[in-house]
Amino acid sequence: MLSKKHPGFATRAIHVGQEADPLTGAIAVPIYATSTYLQEELGKNKGYEYARVSNPTRTRLEENLAALEGGIASRVFASGMAAIHALCTLFKSGDHVVSGHNLYGGVPRLFNQILVNYGLEFAYVDTSDVTAVEKAMRKNTRMVYVETPTNPLMALSDIRAISEVTRRKKVDLVVDNTFMSPYFQKPLALGADMVVHSTTKFLNGHSDGLGGVIVCSKPQQAEQFAFIQKAAGAILSPFECWLVLRGVKTLAVRMEQHDKNGRAVADFLSKHKKVREVFYPGLPSHPQYRLAQQQMTGFGAMITFETGSLSNAKKMLKKVRVCSLGESLGGVETLISHPATMTHLALGEKGRKAIGITDGMVRISVGIEDVDDILADLDEALTAI
Question: How far is it, in rounded angstroms, from Cα 23 to Cα 2?
């Protein structure tokens, strides 16, 4: 039990839900690798019946992530996409969702190729424009779904301003907070109703486990998602839960280093003669730099930059050595990717062009290596262009 009523972020990350095991005193939360639980007699158990419904390792993680985001509860799922799908199972045929037009490519793939078949309707708008969000809403709108900063163009949405609209319209505002983590951005405190993360990314931080989470602001939401976990079964395994619990203990120090390195890399790229444009909210040249300063307490590690052509991007990506070419982000290692052929391939050429994703764009998730090594690697790779 923590002694302070309102402990700091790093203290919560290390201690909430991470209390020593009552049976053995183990400091690290155990992996409860069990599919079922002993019941003393009919109708009498110790709070656990079957592992799809609940698991002690999972319970601990859900307590921890709720505390970090300032929610009343959280529910974890087998992946970030499983969490987003769980959100949408709250709706029925004919319900309408307003979504950002620049998102991780897997989200519109889920919406447009699967959920529309069940009668859900989607509108895509630039959520950095609050007026556009409000104009897109209808009588049957049930959710506004926002990713901020966006993937990969790093555009910001004013969470507080959008929440004022959604509250007036009695519509849920859901914010994907994966890029910033709860260390740098608190959507619930800014008026969001729910927060989602791919725990695969910064929360886990070590590129070794998939997962997703929904953080709730109301008890009814927590009850609904607990039922969805039980009924649909796309739960996070005890081992994956343990990986996130282990990773989140260092979230505060990792995010500080990610941010420090991210700022240095963004500044370097903005001055490099082979780079046409840099998308990073921590640069004064970013059109929403002031909003970034107000809404976030750091600028993070995600940067996108323009090399000018697919040929240039290919040449550059072939030369990196410290930076690892691969999908995903948020690991301690620097990961570099090509949105047009990787994360956003499913949008198609027209879809990418409509939102401003070019063939020459490269996205980098800046790791926590020595920053001079990252800069030297990028400089050498860019000379290939």
Answer: 19
Domains detected in the chain: 9-248 (3.40.640.10), 251-382 (3.90.1150.10)
DSSP state of 347: G
Query: Angle at which helices 371-382 and 310-319 pack, to 10 degrees?
Result: 130
Kindly list the strands in the beta sheet with 212-216, ordered across the sheet, starting from the edge strand earlier in the chain.
Answer: 73-77, 212-216, 194-198, 172-176, 141-147, 96-100, 121-125
Q: What is the mean pLDDT of the chain?
A: 96
Q: Is the pLDDT of residue 3 over 70?
A: no
Question: Three-state SS for 175?
Answer: strand
Q: Which member of 52, 169, 218, 319 is catalytic?
A: 52
Model pLDDT for residues 194-218, shown as the tens digit of each residue: 999 999 999 999 999 999 999 999 9
Residues linked to residue 33 through DSSP beta bridges, in sequence order:
none
Catalytic residue flag (residue 201): yes
Show the tokens assigned to 126: 């630039």
Compute the distance between CA of residue 210 and CA of residue 199 in angstroms, rounded to an integer.
7
Angle, helix 251-271 to helix 371-382, in steps of 10 degrees: 30
Structure confidence at residue 46 (pLDDT): 77
CB 61 within 8 A of CB 215: no
pTM for the model: 0.96
Q: Is 104 a catalytic residue?
A: yes
Is 145 among the residues known to form the active site?
no
**Bond preceding residue 281 cis, omega within 30 of 0:** no
The identity of residue 28, as a single letter, is A
Q: Which of 186, 201, 263, 352 is the catalytic position?
A: 201
Q: What is the pLDDT of residue 223?
A: 98
Which of 137, 124, 174, 142 has its CA nearest to residue 347? 124
Residue 84, Ramachandran bin (φ over 0: left; ψ between -120 and 50: alpha; else beta): alpha
| CA 168, chain centre distance (Å) | 26
**Which pLDDT score is estimated for 325?**
97
Asked whether the predicted pLDDT for residue 91 surpasses 70, the reply is yes
Amino acid at 274: K
Cβ atoms within 10 A of the Cβ of 383, count?
A: 12
